[in-house]
Amino acid sequence: MDTDTIILQLITHIREIVNVHESDIDFITSKLEIVQLKKKDFLLREGQVSRHMRFIAQGSLFAYHTDEKGKENITQLGIENWWVNDLYSYLSELPSRMFIRSNEDTTIIQISKNNLELLYKEVPTISEFWRLKMQNAYVTLQERTFEHSRVDAYTKYRTFVSTYRNIEQRFPQYMIASYLGITVEYLSYLRKKHLSDVS
């Protein structure tokens, strides 16, 4: 994709939520940076401070942390038109406790915290956009926390595939299993059960 198409994709995404005036587009665009990642490249490493908001224009990313045994635990998955970040690190300005890595060749649009603060002042609709995005992120986190402790694995899987219809085919099974907190073998069983139930 060329730069203009990539930027238009983000502007279209923003306009789905708030009304951005045409006169503000150039100013917004001037604050954006496009980053190209090859498959398995790191966007963020544990210990780094996250200083950007990041929009996936093309490709996919996953975020994970490692436990005391060195096992990777997937906490986020992301595809086109999603935002992926360590919000804890971004908001607190403390070192990240996770890694963010590309699952495919990926194109990111990112904006630094300083530039975003400038946009908040100069383009108030961007402030409104992020207020709404943060609210949605909080609701999603609450729902996931609730599901994790109170819902059985099959219900978690069904919710996952119905909510994120285009994502399961984009990531290897071990990542989906880790995200759901189950083994790969159990994920395979749940997939077969689900296919049987909907057929």
UniProtKB/TrEMBL annotation:
Superkingdom classification of source: Bacteria
Pfam family, one: cNMP_binding
Organism: Chryseobacterium indologenes (Flavobacterium indologenes)
Name assigned to this protein: Crp/Fnr family transcriptional regulator
